[in-house]
Amino acid sequence: MVTAQAEPHVTPVVEGEPLAARDAVDVRDSVTGDLLATVALGGSEAVATALAAAEAARPSVRETTVAGRASWCERIAADVRDREAELADALVRETGVPITSARAEVAAAADQFDRVGDTLRSLTGKYRTWTTPDRGGDNSLVTAAPLGVVRCRPAGRAPLATAALQVAPALAAGNTAVLTPPPTAAVTTSLLAETVRSTVPTGVAGFVPAADGAGDDGQADAVLSAGAVGVTRLEQWLGGGATTVVYPDTDLDAAAAAITAGGPSAVGRRLVGATRVLAHESVQAGLVERLADRVADWETGDPFGESTVVGTLPDGAAARRVERQVDDAVAAGATVVRGGEVEGRTCQPTVLADVPRESALRRERVPGPVVPVTPFESAGTALRLATQTGPLGLVRVFTDRHSLAMDVADAVDAGRVQIHGSGAADTEASDGRVGLDGDATAAIERLTRTKRVRTR
Fold it and tell me: SS in 3 state form for 261-316?
């Protein structure tokens, strides 16, 4: 095990200088349980100061060419890769993910900056002919103009990845940004903010840990009106969870493999959120047997172990939450097929069958390696259950009936829908909101507005 370094003091930084804060919280090391960092929290005044500084810095971004902003992204990507060991160590200690998953998250964040930079170089404006009541045939250049100030709030589940998903397109589009992570994501994102500040002009990227705002539960990649003065956009990556619907004609081996692929700490899985499974009552037993066999290969242990798949839970509160969720499901009629034990901050890989439809395991975010399976008796019931949990990050549908799978895809509110089956050829429908392999062009475009430049 790697020995923890002396705990840092994470503070708000505006215009390159530390900003005083009245409140602070202690963040514990998920591996040792010792103090990891003291995080100074910025209140509304600190956030307002950062937003004002970002607004004042907008001219320096406007004066930077598209190629220059692309170079920013590429330099940040290179610096993130250079700091892999430091960032991965922080991720393990802050979130409890295994070191292999932490390294993958660092690589994914760097790739996101590179992808956005590469995409930015290929964007072009175009001429259109406009006709108005008082003038016809005007030629106009339609270009993308930055929105202004973007407030970014990463999720504690995958802080580095979600921060990259927000900050990279915000800067590429020509906006300034203020990163306001929750305390549970402040240590890792402070390192990213430091890297960004070393590349962009002073004031372009502020950093203010803040306890206000939504938590990790909610819809995927919500782009919200912030309401605060000086904020044009609030970028918040919230996951939303994943649901897999397994119909009777399913290849159960393929379904079990998809549900468990990469283990519970895979970057994409953490971005999406908790996994829930709906299985037809005729195939539930066969599916949970296969799931139990596959999660048996998830090695639990030291998060710094190279073969570890399941690390530790971030803190005691998360451990108690998982324990309560499993106990409540069992009390309501669920059956533990494998695992179910929480020892300290370690949760054994767990598979449950017959999970009630109103169980907390279906309604709440589950911070541990738990796969709950709920049976359904008809296609109509499956569709209702798949849509009643609110917005989702990912929906997988396993059936050879393509029309049935498309009914689910049309009905659910999800960032991505994957259809598996002989008639579907494992097709995928996506709006680009979920996953680090999303559409970088769409990410940049949603952080710009259309600007028409008329020529005469």
Answer: CCCCCCHHHHHHCCEEEEEECCCHHHHHHHHHHHHCCCCECCCCCCCCCECCCCCH
| Same structural domain, 160 and 54 | yes
The domain of 106 spans 9-239+436-455
Whole-angstrom Cα distance, residue 326 to residue 313? 15
CA dist., res. 13 & res. 39, Å (int): 12
Are residues 167 and 294 both part of a single domain? no
Ranges of H-type helices in 296-435:
316-331, 360-363, 379-387, 402-411
Q: Which two tokens stand for residue 161?
A: 């990845």
**425 plus 440 within the same structural domain:** no
Residues 214, 343 within the same domain? no
Both 398 and 441 in a single domain? no
Residue of 22 and 258 predicted with greater confidence: 258
Residues 142 and 260 in one domain: no
Q: How far apart are CA 81 and CA 108, in angstroms?
A: 10
**Is residue 83 over pLDDT 90?**
yes
pLDDT digits over 52-81, tens only? 999 999 999 988 998 999 999 999 999 999
| Global pTM value | 0.83
d(CA 47, CA 211): 11
Is position 4 within any domain?
A: no
The predicted structure's pLDDT at residue 62: 85
Q: Which residue has the higher pLDDT, 119 or 144?
A: 119
Residues 6+ apart with CB under 8 A from 383: 407, 408, 411
- The residue among 3, 7, 27 whose CA lies nearest residue 314 is 27
Nearest to 117 by CA among 445, 442, 444, 450: 444
pLDDT at 235 over 80: no
Taking a C-beta distance cutoff of 8 angstroms, is the pair 409, 385 a contact? Answer: no
Q: How far is the CA of 25 from the CAs of 38, 186, 210, 261, 452, in angstroms? A: 6, 11, 11, 36, 48
